[in-house]
Amino acid sequence: MDESLETVLVEFDDDRGVGTLTMNRPDALNALNGQLRDDIVAGLEALEEETEDREGVALRAVVLEGAGEKAFCAGADIGGFSDESAGDSSARSHYDVIRNFPAPVIAKIDGYCLGGGLETALACDFRLASEGSTFGFPEVNLGILPGAGGVQYVSKLAGPAVAKELAMTGEHISAERAGEEGIVNHVYADDEFDDEVDAFVTDLAGQAPLAIQAIKKSADMAVHSGLEEGLAYDRTLFEGLLQTEDHAEGAAAFAEDREPEFEGK
Ligand code: CAA
């Protein structure tokens, strides 16, 4: 599969089960206009459609990246700034679709990651950044706040003081600082970035996919549930996974001292 939407390139690597969405408005630093938001959703749907009739779980991970040399995404498109672009409140916003997508979504960040672009990355399950990337919430310069939960996310990941600093000053921070604050998972040297991300994604895609999906749900639940409720939820997920062929395969592979082959069944 190799599909082009107006502003997003969609690829699917059959061997690894990895989809890639490339936000493709490099001349505007991949700023989010309505079309790009819609195309991210359409791209994720296209990946699901491509893989839905296959056995087990064929779509293991999705990488979201930005085209061009300069940016992952420089936020909402200021030229077309409107109610719609100042924080998407529709039921199927690309933020919600990424967050609720069954497979993990990895933000591959190389360059500016600002405003709604940072919020898009925060809706993903992982943020992997090149060392030259920069992060920030410039919304305050426009007299608004990050409208898609940026302050909430960063408060949870790095604490409210860091969230306030980013959102109240509008200053950019380095990838190194974003890594130290827990806003990104890993920061890689620029010349090793592609290979490191590839290795991370390949490992993730090789794990038992039903377990990965359950872990995504569990971690997301932990953010808004009490511990008792979360423990009960995990117990249900665990009991379901014990019944899967992947669990039997993992146990057999361990006993036979070989690599497991998971199918998502
Ligand atoms: N919207 C529309 N176009 C943008 C853009 C944006 N957010 N960011 C950059 N561009 C465009 C520029 O207008 C420029 O276009 P032209 O070549 O046609 O003039 C092109 O991308 C390259 O940008 P610069 O020349 O400005 O590049 P630079 O390297 O000098 O600066 C930058 C890069 C610091 C990211 C600067 O472009 C900038 O500050 N951009 C605005 C970032 C911003 O404020 N984002 C937040 C928007 S609000 C938001 O995101 C809220 C939300 O979703 C809820």
UniProtKB/TrEMBL annotation:
Q: Name one GO biological process term.
A: fatty acid beta-oxidation
Q: What UniProt keywords apply to this chain's record, in alphabetical order?
A: Lyase
GO MF term (any one): hydro-lyase activity
Is Lyase given among the entry's keywords?
yes
Q: Which domain of life is it from?
A: Archaea
Among InterPro entries, the record links this protein to: ClpP/crotonase-like_dom_sf, Enoyl-CoA_hyd/isom_CS, Enoyl-CoA_hydra/iso, Enoyl-CoA_hydra_C
Answer whether the UniProt record assigns the keyword Transferase to this protein: no
Write down the CDD domains for this protein, in alphabetical order: crotonase-like (cd06558)
Q: Which family does it belong to?
A: Belongs to the enoyl-CoA hydratase/isomerase family.
Name of the protein this chain belongs to: Enoyl-CoA hydratase/isomerase family protein
What organism does this protein naturally occur in? Natrinema salsiterrestre
> Which lineage ranks, top first, belong to the organism behind this chain?
Archaea, Methanobacteriati, Methanobacteriota, Stenosarchaea group, Halobacteria
